[in-house]
Specification:
- By secondary structure, the protein is of the alpha+beta class.
- The protein has four helices and 18 strands.
- Strands 1, 2, 3, 4, 5, 6, 7, 8, 9, 10, 11, 12 and 13 form a 13-stranded mixed β-sheet that branches. Strands 15-18-17 form a three-stranded mixed β-sheet. A two-stranded antiparallel sheet has the order 14-16.
- A hairpin with a 5-residue loop joins strand 2 and strand 3.
- Helix 1 packs antiparallel against helix 2.
- It starts with 7 loop residues before the first helix and ends with a strand.
- Keywords: Membrane, Transmembrane, Transmembrane helix.
- It comes from Sphingobacterium ginsenosidimutans.
- Pfam families: FecR (PF04773), FecR_C (PF16344).
Length: about 270
């Protein structure tokens, strides 16, 4: 113990044994305690000041550590109740249907051509064999060199319809290649489908095939629905039929005295 300082225990014992020193020793005891309290308070204040000086440095360091590096600036185009066309610097253009969204990086065209798209749009892409045009369509990716196609990306419908050129689609590790007048689609709860557009011209051959099987093959090939009288399902069809979907349907219906009627974009009725 430092010279001149009294041990609190000695002071307490002195008070207990000699009441005459009670007042003097009590005063010394409280002074000793007060000095210790003040010393601790000074230490706390010094520590708080040190933390106040260190905290800004730590926060500044954290800002530099977590600050994103090389963040690309992006532009987003959104259509509301109207249709709009976006022209890209590579010569491509995109016709966006209402309630669609297109996001483009300011780096577009320098080394890659990549965009993100949601909604419905018609893409007319300028050809560049060294820089494929890539589309992030959320649930799937599309890659083209130069082509024209429709892309649909909504909550319930994911579809690509190709008119010119070639398209590569990647979905869940599966790759699908489309040729002109072919299409690809995916719906929640169903498998991916690769089929022909109604405008695609093909040749079908049947040899004494029941009408039900013939129409089923057309439905699967073009992803269309065909309603017809149940009484004719066992009728037999033979021959080679060439043309687009409507042409073939007309040829098959004629000998059966049926007339194809279009109900909507994906449904026909024979009556």
């Amino acid at each position: 113990m430092a010279k001149g300082k009294k041990d609190p225990k000695e002071i307490w014992d002195a008070i207990s044994e000699d009441p005459s020193v009670k007042q003097e020793t009590s005063q010394s005891l409280w002074e000793n305690i007060d000095q210790r309290i003040q010393k601790k308070e000074r230490a706390k204040r010094k520590k708080r000041k040190s933390m106040l000086l260190i905290l800004p440095v730590l926060l500044l360091g954290a800002w530099f550590i977590f600050q994103p590096k090389n963040v690309e600036e992006q532009y987003t185009f959104v259509t509301m109740n109207n249709r709009d066309t976006v022209y890209l610097k590579d010569g491509s253009h995109i016709i966006m249907e209402p309630f669609s969204e297109l996001t483009i990086s300011t780096e577009f065209g320098s080394s890659i051509r990549k965009v993100a798209f949601r909604g419905k749009g018609y893409f007319d892409i300028a050809k560049d064999k060294n820089k494929p045009f890539q589309i992030d369509a959320m649930d799937f990716d599309v890659e083209v060199l130069g082509t024209k196609f429709d892309l649909i990306q909504t909550d319930t419908d994911h579809r690509v319809q190709l008119f010119e050129g070639k398209v590569k689609i990647n979905k869940d590790g599966n790759t699908t290649y489309l040729m002109p007048e072919e299409a690809w689609c995916f719906k929640a709860g169903s498998t991916q489908k690769h089929y022909m557009l109604p405008s695609a011209k093909r040749t079908f051959k049947f040899d004494h095939t029941e009408l039900a099987i013939v129409l089923q093959q057309l439905e699967e090939s073009y992803q269309m629905k065909i309603a017809y009288p149940d009484s004719l399902k066992d009728k037999v069809v033979s021959g080679a039929f060439s043309g687009n979907f409507e042409d073939i349907l007309q040829i098959i219906s004629f000998p059966l005295d049926l007339k194809p009627t279009r109900i909507n974009e994906q449904q026909y009725r024979l009556k």
